[in-house]
Amino acid sequence: MARFTPKVVTANALIEGDVVYLTADDRWSRLHHEAELIEDEAHAQLRLLFGMAQKNVVVGAYLADAKAGPNGPEPTHFREAFRTRGPSNYAHGKQADLTHV
């Protein structure tokens, strides 16, 4: 039996289009480290269904690989790491915030 890779539920906010992550207390956060790190496959599927059912809030919910980090979940794939930084085609929002840190 294959070992399950931990996941987070991610989507895009319906109105703003921002990348969001499902938290353990059923909120959508724009911060990856606030996401619920899911380490059980059955629980991951249930959380994904929960996210997908919120069609008035998010679009395109899916499970993304993650790992435990010192401040919460961290992405394990470059695509997901890129998504945590937000759009890179304009100098405001998350990209601008990163240059001022």
From TrEMBL:
Listed InterPro entries: DUF2849 (IPR021270)
Domain of life: Bacteria
Region (Disordered): 69-101
Protein name per its UniProtKB record: DUF2849 domain-containing protein
Native species: Gemmobacter fulvus
